[in-house]
């Protein structure tokens, strides 16, 4: 994982100031004050963020097609949510997510990292709210929502079983699991087994596997699954044997 992936909230005010023009900065500043004073006003301000501040990467040098890269409107929406009084967040955040388009949902998910950085930010009633948002995002096939859900805060609210399912979802939809913060400290024997089964299924279909699965598998090597994968090298069906060779070559 790159530093920017999971520390994008560091000095977020200064980073936004560096990329917003005067009109956009003024609008965001006014919106934050309004939300702090009258929380319900976020319902009108939140959908307008992209139009008011822009949609490009927060880091102008970043790849705009990278689903893990935070955008300017992600940052602005996260700040708006953080401007809500703490007591209003468990009510307003689920509604903003539920009624939002994809960019609004992603901004709501990104806000979890910012809220988690505050003392007690995702404790109490906020924890189940955060978990519900992450769970919903993981039911989609939108790689930008999946990546936004699996920030530091999103990973932290998932138990081991849910995280294992999230990792499996990532490899199916093509999200780089190396970018999931702290994943390799959370790998369980069950997750290693699931990844090995995934590799075997792909080989049986003659398909390639991402190299990122191997450190997860080798964290708790499932001997029987690995033996089954290696046995594919002797398959009479050439496409399976070739797929096995390609997969095992990535293991190193």
Radius of gyration: 21 Å
**Residues in helices, as a percent range:** 55-70%
Q: Structural class from helices and strands? A: mainly alpha
Tally of alpha and pi helices: 15
| Share of residues in strands | under 5%
Global morphology: elongated
Strand/helix succession: HHHHHHHHHHHHHHH
Look at the structure and give the mean pLDDT. 95
Which regions have little confidence, pLDDT < 50, spanning 5+ residues? none
The overall number of domains is 2
Q: List how many beta strands DSSP finds.
A: 0
Distance between the termini: 20 Å
Question: How many strands, which pairing sense, and closed or not: the largest β-sheet?
Answer: none
What this model shows, in words?
The structure is a single chain. With 252 residues, the chain is mainly alpha-helical. It is 64% helix and 0% strand. The chain folds into 2 domains: 177 residues, no CATH class; 61 residues, no CATH class. Helix 3 runs antiparallel to helix 4 and helix 4 packs antiparallel against helix 5. It starts with a helix and ends with a helix. The model has no long low-confidence stretch (mean pLDDT 95). It is built from 15 helices and no strands.
């Amino acid at each position: 994982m790159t530093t920017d992936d999971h520390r994008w909230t560091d000095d977020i005010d200064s980073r936004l100031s560096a990329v917003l023009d005067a009109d956009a900065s003024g609008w965001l500043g006014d919106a934050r004050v309004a939300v702090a004073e009258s929380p319900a006003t976020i319902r009108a301000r939140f959908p307008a963020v992209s139009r008011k501040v822009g949609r490009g990467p927060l880091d102008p040098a970043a790849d705009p097609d990278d689903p893990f890269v935070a955008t300017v409107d992600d940052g602005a929406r996260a700040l708006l949510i953080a401007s809500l009084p703490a007591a209003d967040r468990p009510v307003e955040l689920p509604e903003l997510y539920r009624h939002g388009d994809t960019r609004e949902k992603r901004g709501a998910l990104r806000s979890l990292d910012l809220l988690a950085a505050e003392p007690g930010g995702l404790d109490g009633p906020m924890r189940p709210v955060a978990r519900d948002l992450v769970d919903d995002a993981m039911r989609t096939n939108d790689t930008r929502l999946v990546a936004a859900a699996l920030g530091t805060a999103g990973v932290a609210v998932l138990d081991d079983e849910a995280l294992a399912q999230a990792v499996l979802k990532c490899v199916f939809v093509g999200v780089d699991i190396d970018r999931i913060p702290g994943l390799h400290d959370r790998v369980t024997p069950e997750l290693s087994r699931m990844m090995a089964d995934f590799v075997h299924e792909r080989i049986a279909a003659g398909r390639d596997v991402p190299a990122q699965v191997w450190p997860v598998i080798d964290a708790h090597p499932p001997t029987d699954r690995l033996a089954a994968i290696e046995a594919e090298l002797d398959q009479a069906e050439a496409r399976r044997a070739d797929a096995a060779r390609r997969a095992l070559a990535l293991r190193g």
